[in-house]
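User: Reviewer 2 asked us to show a designed sequence for the structure in our supplementary figure. I'm pasting the structure tokens here. Could you produce the per-position amino acids so we can include them in the response letter?
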């Protein structure tokens, strides 16, 4: 039987291959059909799903260690990205996201499975976990998109017309895609926070208060960005700063606390 570790290894290899192929395609501005690249990406995502969900399943519940949860988040990021390709030209984000996904799926397969074990999960708790992971995934794409917008805007301001500027769609379209992604991410983050208040016994308990406060701070940053964009015309560098700041707050809310608990304090 195909093991989860083997699936993780093959998925990682395919992710790297897709990243290299897409980078070459973008550099050459090739007009050839991207279907073969997308097909490889689809296979990588399917194998990643097998490895990620096999790692999460435990006899008593779900095992959410830092690396396993990270692998699941990157899988959700890639699913969201591939779905988005149906209406937006985000394919060059694969060049950045897929190598990180390769590392994430390999670390989840190789590292010890120590971590929080979630048992007796209700439907509401599963909804909260699902919306939280999906919000994180969509806003991770927004963060990468924000980095590309900031770099592209910088190059255009300094009259650099080669390199990144040639590889990406026009800046106006890049900004439009960024705000669309942030809108979707904010809606999902709203659902995640609301479901936490509804289904968690005490969302401000000692072990949850930092996650709650940082998640609300992230929500405020994203909401302020969208308000500023529609009311004050915020764009480019300002949009990138708010997006990256909001995502940094989310990353600290989950990954930062998991890193401290599991790798430094050696606690689940």
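Assistant: Here is a per-position design you can include in the supplement:
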């Amino acid at each position: 039987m195909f093991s989860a570790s083997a699936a993780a290894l093959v998925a990682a290899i395919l992710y790297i291959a897709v990243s290299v192929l897409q980078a070459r395609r973008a550099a050459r501005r090739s007009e050839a059909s991207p279907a073969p690249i997308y097909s490889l990406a689809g296979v990588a995502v399917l194998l990643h799903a097998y490895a990620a969900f096999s790692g999460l399943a435990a006899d008593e519940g779900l095992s959410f260690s830092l690396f396993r949860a990270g692998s699941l988040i990157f899988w959700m990021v890639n699913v969201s990205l591939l779905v988005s390709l149906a209406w937006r030209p985000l394919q060059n984000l694969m060049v950045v996201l897929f190598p990180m996904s390769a590392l994430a799926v390999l670390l989840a397969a190789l590292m010890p499975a120590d971590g929080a074990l979630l048992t007796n999960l209700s439907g509401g708790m599963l909804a909260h976990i699902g919306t939280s992971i999906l919000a994180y995934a969509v806003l991770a794409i927004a963060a990468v998109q924000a980095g590309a917008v900031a770099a592209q805007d910088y190059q255009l301001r300094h009259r650099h017309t080669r390199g990144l500027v040639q590889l990406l769609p026009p800046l106006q379209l890049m900004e439009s895609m960024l705000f669309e992604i942030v809108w979707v991410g904010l809606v999902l983050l709203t659902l995640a926070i609301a479901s936490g208040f509804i289904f968690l016994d005490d969302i401000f308990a000692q072990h949850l208060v930092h996650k709650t406060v940082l998640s609300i701070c992230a929500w405020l940053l994203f909401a302020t960005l969208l308000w500023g964009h529609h009311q004050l015309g915020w764009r480019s560098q300002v949009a990138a700063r708010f997006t990256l700041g909001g995502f940094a707050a989310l990353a600290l809310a989950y990954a930062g606390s998991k890193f401290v608990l599991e790798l430094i304090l050696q606690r689940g």
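For the response letter, you might also mention the following. The chain has two domains: 1-117, 121-268. The first helix runs from residue 4 to 28.
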